[in-house]
Amino acid sequence: MQSAVAPSASSLREPVLSLKGISKGFGAVRALTDINLDVHAGEVVAIVGDNGAGKSTLVKILAGVHPQDSGTITFDGQVVSIPTPTASRALGIATVFQDLALCDNLDVVSNLFLGREITHGTLDEEEMEQRAWSLLRQLSAKIPSVRIAVASLSGGQRQTVAIARSLIGEPSVVILDEPTAALGVAQTAEVLNLIERLRERGLGVLIISHNMADVQAVADRVVVLRLGRNNGDFHVADVSYEEIISAITGATDNVVTRRASAHAVAAAAESHAPDATEPPAPSAGSKENR
Amino acid sequence: MTTPSETPAERAADLQDERLVRTEGVRGAILAFQQRVRGGDLGSLPVIIGLIVIWVIFQILNPNFLSSNNLVNLTLQCAAVGTISIGIVLVLLLGQIDLSVGSVSGLAAAILGVGLTQLGWPVALAVVVALVVGAAIGFLYGLLFTRFGVPSFVITLAGLLAFLGLQLKVLGPNGSINLPYDSWIVQFAQATFLPPWAAYALAVIAAGAVFYTDVRRASRRRKAGLSTGAISVTLIKSIGLLVLLVIVVAYLATDRGLGAMFLLFVVLVVVMNFFLTRTRWGRSVFAVGGSVEAARRAGIRVNRVYISVFILTSTFAALGGLLASARLTSASLSSGGGDTNLNAIAAAVIGGTSLFGGRGSAYSALLGILVIQSISNGLTLLNLDSSIRYMITGAVLLLAVIIDSLSRRSRASHGQA
């Protein structure tokens, strides 16, 4: 029922990060059920969904905040487990949480290298400042001085610092949780440019967003979650705003559409024998073309 | 230096943004300082102005106040509580508090007294035992804080009572022990003064070290393609420091000179400042004080930072207690009692270390204790008793906290909180 995705150039390659059959429950609540998700190098994948769809839970599993109950995570072709945030970072997954987690009292350089300071006995401030500048220049970040406290930066600049910090450890996948949620028009554009630059660097980018305009502007693929299940996987180029919205809200998942699709399948079966490999149209299904 | 005609690419890496207002040389340094102050980043300015005002007032009221004899006394009075105050600065940087430093210092004094007189320990052993006990107390606080999450305020309030009790227990029924006057720690605290030539040499070394580190930093920054400050500013700074230190040394030398105990205190301040600003550990202390969650997510082992700081705070408290008892040649029930606790905390806050965590410097212990002891010393010279002294010290502490809160608000309104 959701649009079938034609395999593109990127999806033919081995994904850098691949989730298969991920489930997670909190007590009686099934937060995630049988989630599948692929992220390729140089691809921006947006995860969208209503509140409670399980987006944050999925991010937390990848960030090592809590492990999944079942299902496998494959990273660079290896099946991995991510029990702690440190393990996630060590694999090469950098997560930028919504609250950014910057130290307001420290300057930009200190924040960028926090926990990963370059030292030769004492802190090597010059080396750090130089590398901070070259990193920020690569990202075309608009930060006037790296020696001012992060508190005095605008929201977009703070987001830039947080994203730049995630790149210090040379990750291969960057996860951004609501990167544009609190930003103005110009700052949002800056962050979207930044995301495109991450893609140009060959990183796999996973963004969570409620803002469809941003998603359509920057993402290559959109993965829709609904009530903890996959509810569609679209190429942004081939999908309309309305289709994504209806996948998010489940507007297409009602008695009428289910009956219509059942008829369609039945009609197809009568006219010619169905191909065994072709999946039947899912209802609220977790089917994703690959 | 740079000229306006050059292209952005030729500029230092940190000056390429066209929005940056570039100021250079001595004028630039003054302008930058003015801007910082207006933006609410007062640094040490209020406390230096306050110190000058206090000194002028007391000098007018009593001409003996600024006599070299009294100033030498003042430096010796500063050393013990000042040393305790270094530890308070550390714990305040984390946004925590240690209310038990007075009791811990009293306990250390009691251990020194009992060890020397009743147990016949050598001085070095008694000192080491006292310091180890201090460190162990800090470790205990750190464990309680990190394992059980009890607020440090409550843990150390309990410690204040408990270790006061332990101090009484150690002292035994006498309640007061006189230290042998000829032991080296008493001699060190009371009668050891630097000969003038050594004090002058130290002044030259200090100014030279400031000059050398600035020049070295400038050359490293140039190598890294970053902007450097003007050499004239460095020169003025180090020559100014040299002149100031030489005047102080020369004036103190007209009396007994620079006390070894005060020198130890200043050296400890400088060393702690180095660790806070130039090492990974220091950076993590500021990070935890700024935002614990951010520090934790950045991979800093937050619990270790807390424990290390609690250990240092209690150890500095024990050392301060040793110095105080050596200076008074006695360990008694009142060692570390009275206003020791609050003076140490007040000194750190008055010196400019924020109560809210993440802002401050080791030098605030030095500046703050100078203010506190100047007030106490001046009021004693005026023959005012401790009732007035407590009230005035309380008022000064309140003023310092108000300045801290106001500058915080000013930083917020200038977008730098």
TrEMBL record, chain A:
Alphabetized UniProt keyword annotations: ATP-binding, Nucleotide-binding
Alphabetized Pfam families for the sequence: ABC_tran
InterPro entries, A to Z: AAA+_ATPase, ABC_carbohydrate_import_ATPase, ABC_transporter-like_ATP-bd, P-loop_NTPase
Segments for region (Disordered): 264-290
Domain of life: Bacteria
Span of domain ABC transporter: 17-252
GO molecular-function terms, A-Z: ATP binding; ATP hydrolysis activity
PROSITE patterns: ABC_TRANSPORTER_2
Compositional bias segments (type: Low complexity): 264-276
PANTHER family given in the database record: CARBOHYDRATE TRANSPORT ATP-BINDING PROTEIN MG119-RELATED (PTHR43790), SUGAR ABC TRANSPORTER ATP-BINDING PROTEIN (PTHR43790:SF8)
UniProt-recorded name of the protein: ABC transporter ATP-binding protein
Native organism taxonomy: Bacteria, Bacillati, Actinomycetota, Actinomycetes, Micrococcales
TrEMBL record, chain B:
TM annotation in the entry: 42-62, 74-94, 99-117, 123-143, 150-168, 188-212, 224-252, 258-276, 305-328, 365-382
Taxonomic superkingdom: Bacteria
UniProt-annotated location(s): Cell membrane
Gene Ontology CC, one term: plasma membrane
UniProt KW keywords: Cell inner membrane, Cell membrane, Membrane, Sugar transport, Transmembrane, Transmembrane helix, Transport
Membrane topology classification: Multi-pass membrane protein
InterPro entries according to UniProt: ABC_transp_permease
Function: Part of the binding-protein-dependent transport system for D-xylose. Probably responsible for the translocation of the substrate across the membrane.
Protein name per UniProt: Xylose transport system permease protein XylH
